[in-house]
Amino acid sequence: MSLSFFGHNGRRLPFTALAITLAAAAPTAANATDGYFLNGAGAKAKGAGGVEIAMPQDALAISVNPATAMEIGHRLDVGVEIFVPDRGASISGNAAGLDGKYSGNGANPFVLPEAAYVRPLSDRLAVGIAINGNGGMNTHYKTNPFASFGASGPAGVNLRQIMISPTAAYKVAQGHSVGVSPVIVLQSFKMHGAQPFAAYSQDPENFTNNGTDWSAGVGVRVGYLGSIGESVKIGAFYQSKINAGDFDDYAGLFAEKGGFDIPASWGFGASVKASDALTVGADYKRIDYSDVQSVGNPVDSLFQGVPFGADGGPGFGWRDIDVWKVGAIYRASPALTLRAGYGRSDNPVPRSQTLLNVFAPGVVRGHYTLGATVKIGDGADVTAYAMRAPRQTVRGSGSIPASFGGGEADVYLAETAVGLSFGLSL
C-alpha cells in the first residue's frame, strides 16, 4: 500500500513512490565542498552559495533547518545535480617506488537527485519530508598509487550517504518557529586496491576488495527560525551525531570494527531583505569530523601498535572544520530571479595525514555559485545553478613514514557542478 499527498484541485502527489526511487538511487558524491558534506540542499540555495539556515527558498531547506517548513508554504521541489570532481595525488621522494602523479578521476560524472515536500496543516503547524544526499567520497585510480607495495588492480573508495528527513515545524509565536526532523541515514561503502595495508589490520579479510557494504542509522535535527521586524531573519540548527551502524565487510579497515558514524554539525545564519528586489544572507556551520574515529583518528596510531579496525585504530586524520557562506538573491522581474554566492571552509586534512587521504582528498576550500529561477506557469518554476570550486592542493609534510619508504604525498581536488530543479507551489 502506498501513501500519497494531495495538492489543491485534487492533484495527486505520489511522493512516497518518488522517495523510494530516490533512495534506491543512493546518490554518489565525490569529496563534496564542506569536507565530504554537500555544500547545500536545493537548487535555489545552491545558487546562492548554499545559504539557507535563515534564507529558505524551497522545500529542500527543511533538510538543513526544519523550522523553515513554516515559511515554505505548500510546495514540492525535485532536482538533480551533475557533479564532476577532479581529484588525484602525487608522490615524491619515496624509496619504495611510489613516486609518480596519479589521477583519481576514473569515475565521472556523478548524478545527485534530491526532493522535498512541505505542507501546512494549520497556521501554526507544518509537516514535510526531504530526501537528499549528505555527501560522500569517491576516488578511482586506474593506475594504482600503491602498486609498488604489491597492490593489484585499480584503487579507490566509494562512500555514498542519503538522508531521509520527515519534518514537523511549529510556530511558537508570531515570527518565531521551531522544527524537528528524525534523520534516517542510508550509506554504502566500497574500497579496492589497498591490499598491502591489510597486513596492518586486526581483520585482514575485511579490509579491501569486498564489494559494496551498506549500513543505516537514525539521528535528529532541530532548528529555529525567527524574524526581527519585517526585513531580518535569523536561524540556527543542530544535527546530532548519527550512529550509522557498522560496515561489517570493512571491519578490518575502519576503527571500532567497521564503524562509520556521521559527525554532529551545527550552525546559525541570518538574512536581510535589503529592498523589494534584493535579499542577502550568510551562514556559519561547524562539522565535528574528529569525533568519528574512522574519520578523525590519525594514521599515527598504527605506529603506536594499534591496528586498522581496532578501537582507536587509524583513520583519515580529519580535523573539525568551520564553514562560512554568503549569498544574494535578486528579483530581476516577476518571472526571473537571479542568485550568486560564495562559500569558504577549512581544510580537514592535515599535511601529515595525506598518505591515506590519497583515497579521500576532501580538501576543497572555496566555491563560487550562480543561479536563476524562471516562473513557467501558475505556481511552477524551474531553477538552474552552477558551482565551481577551484583546485586546492595539500602538500604532505612528514606524510609517509620511513618504514613505508619516506617521501611525501600531495593530494588535490577541484569541483564543478551544474543542477536543475522543478518546483511547484500547491
TrEMBL record:
Keyword annotations: Cell outer membrane, Membrane, Signal, Transmembrane, Transmembrane beta strand
Subcellular location: Cell outer membrane
Pfam family name, one: Toluene_X
UniProt superkingdom: Bacteria
Matches recorded under InterPro entries: OMPP1/FadL/TodX
Main location: membrane
Membrane among keywords: yes
GO cellular component: cell outer membrane
Record's signal peptide: 1-32
Membrane topology, as annotated: Multi-pass membrane protein
GO molecular function terms attached to this record: long-chain fatty acid transporting porin activity
Family: Belongs to the OmpP1/FadL family.
This protein's name: Long-chain fatty acid transporter
Annotated organism of origin: Croceicoccus mobilis
